[in-house]
Design goal:
Length: about 375
């Protein structure tokens, strides 16, 4: 309740719309808390589905590794389970002006300012998106399978997380515990890049600890190529919107750019991926500025954190201390420091093979 009460109080100070929004946040979080069950009890219960039991056992092995080897918080998070009965725990709504790639930000009493609003019901997210569309904004709704309460609650393993496979479930646990280890208000790129690096390096070490080989790079190479196309398109759109053109000309240029992106994707898919495209559904769906927002938001500073990890000799505790020091800097100084560190990074060693860490990813594509 220490989390829910300030949420509702903040809503009361900001009008009826805020009361409604924060009310659904409080209700959704409360329902999630009520659904939690200790993993140990579920594993010990002979009535538990055998497939679920196996998933939970493997998740708990990764959870123990996270605290013992990656020095992530040792608490009850991800030692409880919740069946939420839906594919996503929340739906995030992103919005931008028609001729801009700047996100409409939203500020919260605990998490600070972020580039989206979350809803526990898909219908509510779509309703909010429809209202923003009526205001002339570009809007995108994306489902989220997991999130962190930053240590305010014991975050559960969610039923929505079990469809990924055991290794992906482990990486998400590493990622979300990293948010509990360190979170800087009002700097989404910093927070997500930090958690993404911990996820990637943690996964490498987790596989090595079990004697497993380095993952094949084909999937990550395709993802990087695809994201590279999207980021290049986004840069061209920025130039278009900054040009001294009429709204009609910008609107036509915008649609032409989206068609160019689709064409470049199909050429890449057919010439290098054997005609099979894992992003066909995304590229063929309606396109707008807001849909491009998550790209580059989540991995922007990963090369900087990778370089920092190398500089401290792979010592997790020292690494966290260095990251905390960066987090205490004013945001402009922090970004400059990260740019300087990233500039020193050439490659990041993964299992003895040089693997480029491209700062261009998005949670929905992982």
């Amino acid at each position: 309740m220490r989390f829910l009460v300030p949420l509702l109080a903040f809503g009361l100070l900001n009008g009826c719309a805020s009361v409604s929004y924060y009310g659904q946040l409080a209700s959704g979080q409360w329902q999630l808390l009520q659904a939690r069950q200790p993993v140990a009890d579920l594993v010990a219960n002979p009535a538990t589905d055998s497939k679920l039991r196996q998933h939970l056992l493997k998740a708990e092995q990764a959870r123990a590794f996270a605290s013992a080897q990656l020095k992530l918080p040792d608490n009850r998070s991800y030692r409880v389970y919740a069946d939420i009965g839906r594919p996503f725990v929340v739906w995030n709504v992103f919005a931008t002006p028609e001729f801009s790639l700047e996100a409409q930000t939203h500020c919260f009493p605990i998490a600070g300012c972020v580039a989206y609003r979350g809803y526990y019901k898909q219908g509510a997210a779509r309703g909010a998106a429809a209202l923003q569309k009526q205001q002339g904004l570009d809007v995108y709704v994306g489902g989220v399978e997991a999130y962190s309460t930053l240590g305010w609650f014991d975050d559960p393993i969610l039923s929505s997380m079990l469809g990924w496979g055991d290794e992906r479930l482990a990486t998400v646990i590493f990622h979300e515990l990293a948010h509990q280890r360190l979170y800087v208000r009002d700097d989404t790129a910093f927070n997500e890049s930090f958690a993404t690096f911990v996820e990637q390096e943690g996964t490498r070490q987790w596989r090595a600890a079990r004697g497993l080989p380095v993952l094949a790079e084909d999937g990550s190479r395709q993802r990087d190529q695809f994201i590279g196309l999207v980021l290049a398109s986004r840069e061209r759109l920025k130039a278009l919107y900054a040009a001294p053109l009429t709204e009609a000309a910008k609107r036509a240029g915008k649609q032409a750019e989206f068609e160019r992106l689709r064409g470049e994707y199909r050429t890449l898919r057919d010439s290098q991926w054997g005609g099979r495209g894992r992003y066909d559904a995304w590229i063929n769906a309606p396109m707008n500025n807001a849909k491009l927002l998550p790209f580059g938001l989540y991995d922007q500073w990963v090369p900087a954190f990778a370089q920092l990890f190398v500089e401290v000799g792979g010592d997790w505790q020292v690494f966290y201390q260095r990251v905390e020091a960066l987090g205490r800097l004013p945001i402009k100084q922090r970004q400059q420091a990260l740019k300087s560190i990233a500039g020193q990074a050439r490659s990041y060693r993964s299992g003895g093979a040089a693997t480029r860490l491209d700062p261009r990813s998005v949670s929905q594509l992982r």
